[in-house]
Each structure stands twice: as C-alpha cells, then as structure tokens.
Amino acid sequence: MKTARMEAFSDGVIAILITIMVLELHAPENVTWQALRPLLPIFLAYVLSFIFLGIYWANHHHLLLLVDRVNGAILWANLHLLFWLSLIPFATAWMGEHHTAAAPTALYGLVLLCAGAAYTILQRALIREQGPSSRLAKAVGRDVKALCSVAGYAIGIPSALYNPAISQAIYIATALMWLVPDRRIEKAMRDG
C-alpha cells in the first residue's frame, strides 16, 4: 500500500486536534488587559501543545518521505500514535486550568510519554517493512533524541508530584530540542 492515505488521514487528525485546542481558548468577560492575566497559563499550555503537535506533524511527514509502502501493522501503529495525540487537547485543557497542580501536569507528561513511545513503535514498524538496510533505517540510527525525550517525560511525570513547574520546564526543554525537523532524514533525502 502507498503512504498517501495514511499521511493525509494523519494530517487531518492533527489539524482537528489543533482546532479543538484553540476552541478551548475562551475570551474573558471583561474588556481590560488585566482580564487576560488569568488566561495566561491556559494560553501557554496551548502554545506548548501546539508546538508538540507541530513537531509530531513535521517529523511524521519527514518519516514518510523515506517510505514507499505501508502495511496493516504500520496502519495500526499510526492509529496508536494518533490515539495518544488525540488526548493532548484534554491534557492541555486540564493542565492549563490547573497549572500549579501535580495530577494535571503528570497526566500531560504521561500523554507525551505514550505519544513518544507510539511514535517509536511506528518508526520501528516502518523500518521493519522497509528493511534494515533501507534509507530510513540508516537515517534513524540509534535515535538518541527520541531516547532523551522519553527520559525527559519519564523524569517529568514524577517531578510533578514534587513541583509541577519543574515538570513543565522539562516538557518545554524537550519541545525545544525537537523544533528543528530531524536533519538525519533531510540528509538521507538529499543523499538518496
């Protein structure tokens, strides 16, 4: 099977998730600048989640550039990823509303951890289908950035019980690490 339908479906789901998140941003009743102050944590949670969804979208796109076919296992691995991404709007809303609370911040990290694991599962399913000597397998290599992300989320989740701000800083640092799309795949595209 070709990759076009899977990519188009994934693009649509991610676009809907971003739309759902922005619909959670409600205008204040008051018309003063001060009325925006209580909404700042909600807005910042939205920005962070928008960035995470953008990172997944860009890296998903780059991943599929090196793939010429998919199979049933890959389709299910992709749905698994989309499931965890679909929980981001809920986790974002809860953390935004209760940014100083441990449970919402820990749940946000758990959703990110599971999405990261699901992305790795998808990546490995694609490599299994393309073969160990494929351009994708060579480009991905050991994937140290992904391992660092998972470690960051794993540290951030229990850190929320101590201090949610520490967890949130870890989540932000992880997002910053991924802002530039995976250069290994871009290099493989140029070289291939």
Report the span from N to C terminus: 22 Å
Q: Helicity range of the residues?
A: over 70%
Low-confidence stretches: none
Q: Strand fraction band? A: under 5%
What is the total domain count? 1
Anisotropy-based shape: elongated
* Total helical elements: 9
Task: Please tell me the overall pLDDT.
Answer: 92
Quickly describe the structure.
With 192 residues, the chain is mostly helical. The protein has helices spanning 4-23, 40-65, 72-86, 88-97, 102-130, 135-140, 144-162, 164-177, 183-191.
Task: Describe the overall structure.
By secondary structure, the chain is an all-alpha fold. The longest helix is centred in the middle third of the chain and has 29 residues, at 102-130. It contains nine helices and no strands. The model has no long low-confidence stretch (mean pLDDT 92). 77% of the residues lie in helices and 0% in strands. Helix 2 packs antiparallel against helix 4 (88-97), helix 5 runs parallel beside helix 8 and helix 7 runs antiparallel to helix 8. It has one domain (4-191). The protein is elongated. It starts with a helix and ends with a helix.
